[in-house]
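Sat 14:20. Reprocessing the chain from the morning session after the first attempt stalled halfway. Input below, unchanged.
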Amino acid sequence: MSQRTNRRKFLKTTTAVGAGYWVAGGVAPKQSIAANEQIAFAAVGVGGKGTSDSNDASRNGDMVAICDIDETTLGNAAKRFPKAKKFFDYRKMLDEMAKSIDAVTVSTPDHSHAPASLRAMRQGMHCFTQKPLTHTIYEARLMGEVAREKGLATMMGNQGTANSGLRHAATLVQNGEIGEVKEAHVWTNRPVWPSGLKRPTDTPQIPSSVHWNEFLGPARERPYHPSYHPFKWRGWWDFGTGALGDMACHTLNMPFAALELRDPISVVAESPGHNGETYPGWSIITFEYAATEKRGPITLKWYDGLKLPPEELRSGATLRPGEGASDTGSLLVGSKATLYSPGDYAAEFEIIGVEEPPEAEYEESPGHFNEWVRAIKGGAPAMSNFPDYAGPLSETILLGNLAVWAARGEDATGESDGDVVVGKKIEWDAKNLVATNAPEVMPIVNKEYRDGYGIEG
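Finished this time. Tokens:
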């Protein structure tokens, strides 16, 4: 048995993360690596965000294997990691090098996040997966369960969780500085890719550099088209999770941390409709939350496609006021005051009408990726670990897409032609992952997979 396999099975007890880890406390990983050992990393996806994720990994250990479905992208990464073995199929990489890999980064289109991550974790590899954690709600729940069962260090790539601004704002809200919060508003300038498209009917030749079967992975068979690869996949239901999946793990992150916005009880969406192929050009989604021991009931409204909350809610703001108002951000409306954070990552915020936010005690992050490395080496778990934070956050976000799916409309294209489709209000049983009044959306909760790319082990 190899040295690396022995190290992955090494058990070490550590303390749970302290102040500032708001949502559930976290459990330190059992399968940790000694502090003086080099971590052997592999990367699934090394282009786009995968470039920075693999670079982060290489700064914290040895990159022993890299995988990408595009030979050009893979070749460029090989120049950065000349000692790493190259693969086009992550299944082959993870199986062939199982004894040589300690930890994996997964930076692929959304539909392949869970199949690749679950395969790695079931072989004992610590896992960093880009946002949104998964393509479906069921996958998000399963990712947390497997991570906890295997005792692994995990993290989702929503970098804003490391921001001091986010942690400070969330702590102030929990300390009652803005009073009882009954409504939250979150908005984004996405989508920045084509929306309302029909499936292409032409079948151009697959580029010689692209391994199309491996790109499809778990998705249903369809011919190659440049409308899908390398970037526009985000707008297609089979591959991406739309504007909500792309950005809510960032812009909803601070409200989620501050108010524990997990497990909505209902959700409804309005949009210009869609055709079941691509997401609409805009949507407004309303989530309802029941009261908890720590807060009262809350209404959350999400806006994308440059839809914005009422301007008066931001009245008096000094950060990006008036014409300079942010086209992405969040607002928490409390009984005492409103907290406003412009931008995607809650790096800055203000309590409207208060010159300087009060001080608060919270745990500073050593850096987002560094939190994961710390956990791999037996330290406190990363804030955005799969079981306690990233999984519930992704479940909440992806629930919004159930509502968008229900706002489909007859023969809708998703283009903003002035028509508005209001979908069915989805009543949600979070414990059992069931839309109790809408069985028609359940295929979006737990989808079917192509042979060879399933997630059940």
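The two ends are 23 Å apart (CA to CA).
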